[in-house]
């Protein structure tokens, strides 16, 4: 009996795959065949999964590159439209491409309006706020030069101080900490508020009445309508 077992083992190891199958009983052949088929399916699924992951990765890279190209193109078109609108605005201050309300001045990315009403500083803050704007704060050289070019006198600005500052050169005040970057409602009769006087800033009791300047962020220039506003003969609509 022992010799037969040894013979059988040796035969199993040395035989071909076909002979190997027939050494099993009927159930063993079915299990082996099923296992082989399922293993083949699993390998195909694994290959399909890897191919799918590869395709998805390539698609994501393509989409990312496409999105960047579209974003860069949009930015470029926006810049072109804005520059074009600035040129049209110089020719016609109320050109339809202007991103500011009617009668408001446009400079860089902001809109400005001069009110000819006389109001206290606090009332001026409220009037600007009602237009989704705030009293002008001069924080850059570009805005400073823009305002100086208007040669204004007696307009409230977004300035307040607990001490009377006297006259100050407008050029020097753009770095002042007295500029208000937010609307405030706590200014009282013990405070002084700043107003523009041509190239100077002066302070007065905040309860005095003066004209005022409001500012707010300009809307983005509409790319399509602006770029299509030019017609072949060089005229503009």
Structure description:
With 237 residues, the chain is an alpha+beta fold. The protein has two domains: 1-98; 105-217, Mannose-Binding Protein A, Chain A (Roll), CATH 3.10.100. It is 46% helix and 19% strand. It has helices at residues 2-14, 17-23, 26-91, 121-129, 141-148, 223-227; strands at 105-107, 110-119, 134-135, 153-161, 168-169, 192-197, 200-205, 210-217. Strands 1, 2, 3, 4, 5, 6, 7 and 8 form an eight-stranded mixed sheet that branches. The longest helix has 66 residues, at 26-91. It starts with a helix and ends in a 10-residue tail after the last helix. Residues 1-22 have low confidence and may be disordered.
Report a brief summary of the structure.
This protein is of the alpha+beta class. Helix content is about 45%, strand content about 20%. The termini are far apart.
Alpha-carbon Rg, integer: 39 Å
Helix content: 40-55%
Mean pLDDT: 78
The CATH superfamily of the largest domain bears the name Mannose-Binding Protein A, subunit A
State the CATH class of the largest domain. Alpha Beta
Strand content: 15-25%
Low-confidence stretches: 1-22
H/E topology pattern: HHHEEHEHEEEEEH
Number of helices: 6
């Amino acid at each position: 009996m022992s010799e037969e077992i040894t013979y059988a083992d040796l035969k199993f190891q040395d035989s071909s795959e076909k002979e190997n199958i027939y050494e099993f009983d009927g159930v063993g052949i079915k299990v082996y065949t099923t296992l082989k088929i399922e293993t083949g399916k699993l390998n195909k699924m694994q290959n399909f999964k890897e191919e799918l992951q590869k395709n998805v990765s390539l698609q994501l890279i393509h989409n990312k590159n496409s999105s960047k190209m579209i974003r860069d193109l949009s930015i470029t078109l926006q810049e072109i439209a804005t520059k074009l609108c600035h040129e049209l605005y110089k020719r016609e201050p109320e050109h339809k491409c202007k991103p500011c309300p009617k009668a408001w001045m446009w400079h860089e990315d902001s809109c400005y309006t001069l009110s000819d009403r006389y109001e206290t500083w606090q009332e001026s803050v409220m009037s600007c706020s009602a237009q989704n704007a705030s009293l002008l704060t001069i924080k850059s050289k570009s805005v400073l030069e823009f305002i100086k070019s208007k040669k204004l006198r007696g307009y409230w600005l977004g300035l307040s101080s607990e001490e009377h500052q006297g006259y100050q050169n407008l050029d020097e005040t753009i770095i002042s900490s007295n500029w208000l970057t937010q609307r405030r409602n706590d200014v009282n009769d013990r405070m002084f508020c700043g107003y523009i006087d041509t190239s100077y800033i002066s302070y007065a009791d905040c309860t005095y009445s003066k004209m005022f300047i409001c500012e707010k962020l300009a809307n983005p220039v509409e790319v399509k309508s602006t770029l299509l506003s030019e017609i072949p003969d060089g005229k503009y609509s």
